[in-house]
Amino acid sequence: MPHVITQSCCNDGSCVFACPVNCIHPTPDEPGFATSEMLYIDPVACVDCGACVSACPVGAIAPDSRLGAEQLPFVEVNSSFYPKRAAGVKLPPTSKLAPVIPAAEVHARRQPLTVAIVGSGPAAMYAADELLVQHGVQVNVFEKLPTPYGLVRAGVAPDHQNTKRVTQLFDRVTRHRRFRFYLNVEIGKHLSHAELLAHHHAVLYAVGAPDDRRLDIDGMGLRGTGTATELVAWINGHPDFSDLTVDLSHERVVIIGNGNVALDVARVLTADPNELAYTDIADHALRAFRNSAVREVVVAARRGPAHSAFTLPELIGLTARSDVVLDPSDHQRVLDDLPTAADPLTRNKLEILSALGVADARAPGARRPRIRLAYRLTPQRVLGQQRATGVEFSVTGTDAVRQLDAGLVLTSIGYRGKLIRDLPFDEEAAVVPNDGGRVIDPRTGEPVPGAYVAGWIKRGPTGFIGTNKSCSFQTVQALVADFNSGRLADPVAKPTALAELVHARQPEAVGSAGWRAIDAAEMARGSADGRPRNKFTDVAEMLAAAATAPQAPLRRRLVARLRDLAQPIVG
Ligand code: NAP
C-alpha cells in the first residue's frame, strides 16, 4: 500500500524531510526540483509510514488504496518517475535532514535581527517561517490589502480548495509572538523603502508578479477582452477586481495561451455552478455563472500539443472533471507527436490527449459546456468594432487564417513583475536583479545593502506554491549570513517607533487580530450555506469586520504597551 502524491502537490518539499527512507524525489537539493511539475513517491522504497501525509500542507498524499477514481492515474505518474526494478528489490533506508540556516547571532551590543517582509503570499510566509525559527528574530509583514496570503487567496481557483489548505500553515506562522502583521499598508504609498530600513535590519520584498503579460495585437482593449488573471481575481473576490465587467452572454469564450491559469479559468467557466456554490467563490461570480450562456471555452495555444504549457497533474485533473475535446486536426497532431515525445512527462500528456473525444469544430457541447484544447493558432487580431466578436488566428507557420467567434477573449500568457520604487528593476526579465535573493545594483554589480527578494519578483512567474519554500530559504540564508557578518546596520529608529509611524500614516492598518476577525466573519458567513467561507469583496467591509476584533485583556495590553509604547493597529 505505497503512498501516492496527487494533483494538489504544492512542491514545498515538507514531505521530503518527513520521509524516513528518502523515497520522495526530486528533493530540493536535486537537479530538476525547481522545474519539476510535482514530487513523486517511489512505490518500491515507500514504507507506508504516512509521515508524508501529516507533513503535506495541502492534503495531496494518500495511500494508493484510498484514492478516488480520478486520482488513480497518479499511481502510474508517481512510479514512472523511477527506474523499473526487479520485483521484491527493496531500497536501503536512508534519510534526509532539512537544511538549517546558521542562527542569527546574538550580540550584546546589537539589536536582535528585525526583518520587514513586503507582501504576504507564499514566498513571504515561507520566509517569515524560516526567520521565526531563529532565536529572537522579529518579523513584520506588510501587505497592501486588509487580507493576507496573496495568490493563495486571490489566484488559486475556487474548486482547488485543497491547495488553499496551505493557509493553515501560514496562520500558524502568524500566531508566533515575534510576528506582526501590518495589513492594509502599502509600501511606496504609506511608507517608503528608506523608512522601512530605518526600522529594520533588512527589507525582504516578496511582492510576486502583480501585472499580466499583455498581448500586443489589434482589438485587445475592446469591450469583451481581458486577461485570465483578472478573471481569476474577480472569481476569487479580490477587491480591486470586484467591479470587473464579465460578459458571459455569448456561447463561446476564447482563452489565448494554455498554461495552468488558462486551464483554471476554462474549468471554472464550464463547471456546474451548483458545485462551485460549495467553494469560496465570490458571490458576484457565482451569480454570473448561474446566468452564463457559455457552452464552449477554447484554449488556444500557438505551438503544438507536445509543447503544451499546462502540467500533467492539471491535465489529469481537468480531463477527470470536465468535458474536454480536440479538433480532428489537433487529434492527428497528438498522434503524430507521440512517437517522438522528448521525455516521459510529455509522452504521458500526449497519451491523455490522444484519448480525448474528437469534436466537430462547429458544434459546442450540447449537454454541458465543454473545453476545446486547440493548437498551432497564433493570435493576429481581435475581431469586432464596438466590442469583441471573435479572434483571428494564423495557423502557426503558415499563411492560413482561422477565425473563431467569441463574446469574451481572454489572454493567459503569464504574469509580469512590476518595478518597486527605490529598487533596481530588470525591464526585460521583469524581476528585481538579484544574486540568490540579495538585490544587486546593476550599475556597480554590488548588493544593495539591506534589500532582498523572494518568490516571483526574484525568479520570475514560474513554479507552484511550495516552490517558494526553497526560494525563500535561499534568500533568508543570505540575509542571515549578511547580518552575522555585520553587513546589515542596526535600525536607527527605536523598536517602539514603527507602530506609531504606521498608525500616523495609515490609521486603518489591520493587525493579526483584525485579520482573524475578518477570517472568522467570512467563515461564519459561509457556514450557513455549507461553504468554507463567503469572502468580503470590498475593503470597507473587511475593515468593518477587522474592527470587531476583541481587544486583548488589559494585562496583556499593558505588557504590549510597555513593549511597543503604542498599540494603534486596528484589532
Ligand atoms: P505559463 O505557464 O507561462 O503559460 C503561458 C502560456 O502563454 C503558454 O501557453 C505560452 O505559449 C503562451 N504565450 C506566451 N506568449 C504568447 C503570445 N505572444 N501569443 C500566444 N501565446 C503566448 O503561464 P501561466 O498559465 O500564467 O502560469 C504561471 C505559473 O503559475 C506557471 O508556473 C504555472 O504552472 C503556475 N500555476 C500553477 C497552477 C497549479 O498548479 N494549479 C495554477 C495556476 C498557475 P508558449 O509556450 O508557446 O510560449
UniProtKB/TrEMBL annotation:
Which UniProt key words apply to this protein? FAD, Flavoprotein, Iron, Iron-sulfur, Metal-binding, NADP, Oxidoreductase
The chain positions of domain 4Fe-4S ferredoxin-type read 1-29, 37-66
Q: Which reaction does it catalyse?
A: 2 reduced [2Fe-2S]-[ferredoxin] + NADP(+) + H(+) = 2 oxidized [2Fe-2S]-[ferredoxin] + NADPH
Q: Top EC class per UniProt? A: oxidoreductase
Can you tell me which residues the record assigns to a coiled coil? none
Task: Enumerate the cofactors the protein uses.
Answer: FAD
GO MF entries: ferredoxin-NADP+ reductase activity; iron-sulfur cluster binding; metal ion binding
Q: Which domain of life is it from?
A: Bacteria
EC number(s) recorded for this UniProt protein: 1.18.1.2
Q: Which PANTHER family match?
A: GLUTAMATE SYNTHASE 1 [NADH], CHLOROPLASTIC-LIKE
Can you say what this protein is called?
ferredoxin--NADP(+) reductase
Q: Where does this protein come from, organism-wise?
A: Mycobacterium decipiens
